[in-house]
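Reply to dn_fold:

You asked what the input looked like. This is it:
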Amino acid sequence: MSAMTLERGLAEMGLNLPADVLAKLLEFAALLQKWNKVYNLTSIRGAGQVITHHLLDSLVVLPHLAGIGRLADIGSGGGLPGIPLAIATAARQPAPAITSIETVNKKASFQQQAKIELSLANFTVLNERVENVRPGQPFDAVISRAFSELADFVGLTQHLLRPGGRFLAMKGVYPHDEIARLPADFRIVEAVPLTVPGLGAERHLIIVEKS
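and this is what came back:
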């Protein structure tokens, strides 16, 4: 049932991923459920909901990552969206390098175990507060999924980006109030409505640049 839900959802989103990628995504979903029993990584526990609320909800932004070579995922908890995106892009030449920055030790430990078990060469975990991270090479983009409000997100992560880099904020309903509170030197490049099959909730990708 989970495999069918994943395949059907990806098809509805227009994403054509090979069978080995689908298998690895389902392996990650099973790993997340297994660890969740002990580590409480997510409040979502049912297999079907893990597919819709985590895998599909992460992969819906995949078409908007074109041209991004280095991506930082901020406060990803159980590795979302970073790990599904790393799985889906691992076969690209070159594959984007995705770094998860996670403060909570048990969540970073799970992500490290997932990296090992799923052989994710294009995925790295940093167990660190984002404001303390000083990357040797800046990122092309930073992404977050319900990490914080927009003003906090851009304020906490702008030191990670190269000049002209982008902030990718995954949001639910269109965040009018959060956009109004953005500092004056940041601008909205695009606000993309997203549809996640089986979710039954609004989703938006808010793309921000520093002016």
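The radius of gyration is 16 Å.
Hope that clears it up.
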